[in-house]
Amino acid sequence: MKRIVAREEYCIGCRLCEIQCLVQHSKSRKIIKAFRTERESIVPGVKVEQSGHVSFALQCRHCDEAPCIEACMTGSMRRDERTGVVLCDQETCVGCWMCIMVCPVGAVARGANRQVASKCDLCIGEDTPVCVANCPNEAIVCEEKDD
Amino acid sequence: MTSGSTGLPLRVESTGCPYLIIGNSAAATGGVSGLREVDRDKPVTLIARETEHVYSRPLISYLLAGKVDEKRMHCRPPDFFETNGVEALLGLEVTRIDTEARTVRTSDGRTFAFEKLLIATGGRPIVPREIPGTEARGVFTFTTWEDARRIRSYIDEGGVKRAVVVGGGLIGLKSVEALQALGVETSIVELAERILSATFDQTASELASTFLREAGVEVRCGTTVSEIETSEGRVTGVRLRDGSRRPAALLLFAIGVTPDLRLVKDTRIAADQGILTDDTMETSVKGIYAAGDVVQTTDLLGGAKRPIPILPNAYRQGHVAGVNMAGGRLTFKGGISMNAVDICGLPTISVGVTDPKSDGYEILSTLDARNSTYRKIVLKDDRIVGAIFIGQIDRAGIFTGLIRDKVNVSALKDLLLAEDFGVLSLPKDYRKHVVSGQGIEV
Fold it and tell me: What does DSSP assign to residue B178?
């Protein structure tokens, strides 16, 4: 499966990845519209962390032994068998936040008006995740992982 | 499946079971996943008392509140047993384990031979039978789907305007939330001086109490029910130890669960408070494993082995047991007590040692009572050993990771409570460890 790798030495902290992620997961898929009307209900699955001159973009690691899947009480957090991607079914999530409690990189957020868990879905269906495709400095790259 | 419990001739199922699991909750589900990770072929037999397909126990409070419907109670797909080659015998109770003959007896008189057995029978709610009246109609515990159904239909019969919940722990609070959602005026009665005393500190408990009171819940601490008042076999109210009375048509005991050891009593399977296992989850009897709320676990933060009845532990232990039963090799080193619970809309997370009673601990905390937010980090010897997050829970798992991996945080103490604390704040080596998947360099 694909893995996203952050290269902090190239990240300039522009946060375009966050914006592209938000637009990709919006209803309208239009940048202005999404930013104006859907910003409250979508949390980007990628987060840029910055301190001084160091920054990098971080999203769900889609761990091989994912603690969020094991802790999920509804079975909403599960691995897509075909792609290996860890996905959260927001239709069945009840927002108990066990996943937030156990994710060691803090990659699960309270999304959708803080009712259900929200996280990176690796832009399932796209050739390349939009954060990677749109990073101007190749500070996040996609690598194919051998299984 | 045969039915009837008496008079049937004893017969051993001819084939026998390479893998037999007793129970059908998180530890059992983990067991199936562990077995199938190693062995895709040999059949798995699962026997469970409850009739339902795999469902989520914590969801019962959401079901009672009407926040989820019955269809959403299942935490595995409907074909979970088929796709995993599991023959599930639901609604069947195991009544006896014979460790010498390596068989189990069931309530319908059948006997199943096993090669490897996983005991995942969970916990049983504690009911203070010494108080007269616990058999009355309207007295409930709240740990199963059937409990939720019974409570719901009892309320739907009408006449339940007030309820008393005994126990201010997690099950107690989630049941209060559900009862309030159904329009039942509810009081919590907690024997300790504060609610959530096992997982929270004083400040966090007070925040939660205040939040509950504002939601219309009466919170009474430092007392308990001494007498159940009944009329025509139904609960009408309770008398508390302090002499005061509460009218209530529904009384719910949520004073904890205890490992269900009925099946291992009088067997060679060693047990203390819970079943004892080694780190492969094998009991004192070879080939017999145990996992979940029924076992006693090493606390990674020290102290004696004790039951840590939380879902992630149960699933993990089940998985580990399954892998080892099938001939693989995996260990469970121990668990950390942790809970995430949303109390009437107030999100909370607590992990590890949150309220140390002895010297040698360092406390960092920040409180905003007006906005019901509180964050507390407990350190010992420059390692984080516990944390509480109220209101502001985002990225709490980073702290859980630091606790689990016993990371020295002496260089980042000033950053721990910062708003933007994140992976970037972590020591570089550890940062690489947490963001790297297998074979990934960062």
Answer: H
Q: In whole angstroms, what is the distance from residue B411 CA to residue B418 CA?
A: 14
Residue B172: other Cβ atoms inside 10 A: 23
**Rounded mean pLDDT of B399-411?**
95
Query: What separation in angstroms does the CA of B231 have from each of B121, B128, B136, B154, B250?
Result: 36, 20, 9, 16, 13
Beta-strand relationship, B17-22 and B44-48: parallel
Classify the C-alpha dihedral B236-B193-B373-B406 as positive or negative: negative
**Which residues of chain A does B435 touch, with a Cβ-Cβ cutoff of 8 Å?**
6, 58, 61, 105
Which chain B residue is nearest to residue A106, measuring alpha carbons?
Answer: B395
With CA atoms as reference, the chain B residue closest to A103 would be B397
Q: Collapsing DSSP states into helix, strand and coil, what is residue A78?
A: strand
Looking at beta carbons, which residues of chain A come within 8 Å of B78? none
R_g of chain A, CA atoms, integer Å: 15
Q: With contact defined as beta carbons under 8 Å apart, do B64 and B152 qualify? A: yes
Q: Mind listing the pLDDT tens digit for each residue in B158-198?
A: 889 999 999 999 999 999 999 999 999 999 999 999 999 99
Contact B315 A143 (CB under 8 A): no
Closest by Cα among B33, B2, B17, B236 to B110:
B2
Write out the residues of chain A at the interface with chain B, using a CB-CB cutoff of 8 A. 3, 5-8, 47, 49-51, 54-56, 58, 61-64, 67, 70-75, 92, 94-106, 108-110, 143, 145-146
Q: What would the pLDDT profile of B312-333 be if each residue is shown by its tens digit?
A: 999 999 999 999 999 999 999 9
Sign of the Cα torsion B381, B416, B365, B209 reads negative
Quick check: A9 and A132 in contact, CB under 8 A?
no
**Is there a contact between B89 and B111 (Cβ–Cβ < 8 Å)?**
no
- pLDDT tens-place string over residues A100-145: 999 999 999 998 777 899 999 999 889 899 999 999 999 999 887 6
Architecture of domain A2-144: 2-Layer Sandwich (3.30)
* B123-125/B17-22 β-pairing: unpaired
Where exactly are the structural domains of chain A?
Answer: 2-144
Q: Output helix, strand, coil percentages for chain B, rounded to the nearest 5.
A: 25, 30, 45
State the ipTM, two decimals: 0.95
Residue from A35, A40, A46 nearest A13 by CA: A46
Region B304-310: what's the mean pLDDT?
A: 91
* Secondary structure letter of residue B335 according to DSSP: B
Give the integer Cα–Cα distance in Å for B295 and B307.
6
> Residue B214 phi/psi, 5° resolution?
-65, -25
- H-type alpha helices, A25-141: 31-37, 67-71, 98-102, 130-133
Contact in structure between B394 and A106 (CB atoms under 8 Å): yes
Judging contacts by C-beta atoms under 8 Å, the chain B residues touching residue A53 are none
Nearest residue of chain A to residue B349 (CA atoms): A101
Domains contained in chain B, CATH given: 11-123+258-325 (3.50.50.60), 139-255 (3.50.50.60), 345-435 (3.30.390.30)
CA distance B112 to B19: 11
Please list every residue in chain B whose beta carbon sits closer than 8 Å to the beta carbon of residue A104.
Answer: 397-398, 400-401, 404, 434
| Nearest Cα residue to B47 out of B118, B116, B115 | B118
